[in-house]
Design a protein that fits this description.
Elements: H1 3-12, H2 25-37, H3 41-51, H4 59-92, E1 98-100, H5 101-108, E2 121-124, H6 130-139, E3 143-144, E4 156-162, E5 168-174, H7 181-184, H8 189-194, E6 197-202, E7 205-209, H9 212-225, H10 233-243, H11 248-260, H12 264-278, H13 284-287, H14 310-320, H15 324-335, H16 339-346, H17 354-370
Helix pairs in contact: 1-2, 2-4, 3-4, 9-10, 9-11, 9-12, 10-12
């Protein structure tokens, strides 16, 4: 870790006197930049309030953290109102929906929901409910954002709307837990919904969120499947809150699912990082990549390799699919995304440009897929 990131981690886990390491203006700038990059400024402000140390910190840091805290708290008012509006709309037509990732954790494991910044609200529905869910979003003012899509290349779609004052609201609609094929079907929506917990964010609405064990597994998988082992402190703090103090039964079930899904290495990696940053109390069995004899060959661990190329990840995706027609379709979806996406991504409007755009995509992509990161 860089010094600034180490100081941020220490302050988050409650080490006293960290402010003594950031008395110089340059050190203060690096500290604030690291806190902003890792999206933990509101959480830092709250932690320092709780410890009684905030007043001792240099004024520039103190002001920036408090401003971030207040800004997120103000955003939360609009976020909560919009979330309840959507949840009531889904409930009115009897579509089961599960709140995922940042929003689910914000309302369940953080002391205040505004301590967990997020750019969108992630909702998971069953595959058979996707069409109706899209209709509900459209009837509530949401429009699909241009993005790569297909039956195998993506299992989610971003929808965006602007409210009367121009504030942006974003909803990421999922029908599988992740896009990459090795992760997409590790837990099915029906299983997640069946074991989910209910809570009310207010305004008469009810939300369902993954149970603690499922939430922990999803958090371990997400930072690897979509972000390739990123060391984002916010995601690691999520893991800290989810894993700290697991009882024996919870740890045993978590390990059993990790072994069944071939993700022991992925889970051990995330939990080890969280323990290193925040002294998380993690059962030892979850920190060791010790697959059982009956565990299926893992295609997820390639996502942990720092030298993995895009083509290596694609190979794992292809091996995860059940047959050659599915693999051929995934390749086709990578090479030839929808025309609307190609035009939006290039800033073009004429469909006559599509052959050239696809040719350029393939030629340029060949290098990016084969080069080492």
């Amino acid at each position: 870790m860089e010094d600034a990131e180490a100081s941020v981690s220490a302050a988050l886990r409650g080490v006293p006197g960290v402010w003594r390491d950031v008395t110089e203006p340059a050190a203060q700038e690096r500290f604030l930049a690291a806190a902003a990059a890792h999206r933990v400024r509101p959480l830092l402000a709250w932690r320092l309030h709780q410890s009684g140390e905030l007043a001792r910190w240099p004024a520039p840091i103190r002001r920036a953290l408090v401003d971030a805290e207040r800004g997120e708290a103000a955003l939360e008012i609009a976020r909560r109102r919009e979330l309840c509006r959507l949840l009531l709309a889904f409930a009115a037509v009897d579509i089961p929906v599960l709140l995922l990732k940042g929003a689910a954790l914000a309302y369940s494991f953080y002391p205040e929901p505004w301590l967990r910044p997020r750019e969108d609200t992630d909702l998971l529905v069953r595959a058979e409910d996707v069409k109706r869910a899209r209709e509900i979003l459209a009837s509530n003012g949401y429009r699909a954002a241009p993005m790569q899509s297909g039956a195998f290349v993506a299992h989610q779609r971003l929808y965006v709307r602007a409210d009367a004052v121009g504030r942006r609201h974003a909803c990421d609609l999922h029908w599988k837990i992740a896009n990459p094929a090795p992760f997409a079907d590790l837990l099915a929506p029906d299983e997640l919904l069946r074991e989910s917990d209910a809570f009310s964010p207010g305004d008469g609405c009810v939300a369902r969120i993954p149970c603690r064990i499922h939430a922990l597994l999803l958090a371990c998988w997400h930072r690897v499947s979509h972000h390739h082992d990123a060391g984002d402190l916010l995601w690691l703090y999520d893991l800290h809150l989810l894993a700290d103090g697991l009882n024996d039964a919870e740890a045993a079930r978590t390990l059993a699912i990790a072994r069944r899904t071939g993700t022991t290495a992925v889970c051990a990696r995330g939990l080890s990082l969280a323990a290193g940053r925040f002294d998380t109390r993690v059962p030892a069995a979850l920190l060791a990549d010790e697959p059982s004899a009956e565990q299926r060959p893992s295609l997820t661990a390639v996502y942990l390799r720092p030298d993995a190329r895009k083509v290596d990840l694609l190979r794992a995706d292809l091996r995860s699919l059940p047959d050659w027609p599915s693999r051929a379709r995934l390749l086709r979806e990578h090479l030839f995304p929808p025309a609307e996406y190609m035009l939006a991504a290039s800033g073009r409007t004429s469909r006559a440009m599509l052959p050239a755009l696809y040719a350029w995509r393939i030629a340029r992509g060949a290098w990016s897929w084969l080069r080492r990161p």
